[in-house]
Structures are given as structure tokens and as C-alpha cells.
DUF2635 domain-containing protein
Amino acid sequence: MITIKPAKEGVNVPKPDGKHLAAEGETVKRSAFWVRRLSDKDVEIVKPIAAAKAATKKGE
């Protein structure tokens, strides 16, 4: 599993199911589809959402 988000703000990135990737990012199964999106620089890998929230709470 990888956590990704659109590489550019305001750009809708379609998912294989026809919906769009959430602007704040989503955790998805690593697949050829997402590897191609990464190669095309349509998406970027980010810290997992739960880990990012935990890090924010520790820093408060």
C-alpha cells in the first residue's frame, strides 16, 4: 500500500474505478496503474495520513 496525492493542486486524477483521487491524498494498493501515474508525475507519494496526523499531535 502507498499513500499518494495529486502532484499539482486543483488537478483531478482519475482512479481505476472512475472516481477521482482525493486532493488531501489516499492510501491505495500499489499497482501498475499507480506506478504509471507516479512515472508521469501525475501523483506523488506522501506520508501515510494516520502517521502524519500522529506526528502533528506529538508536535502540539
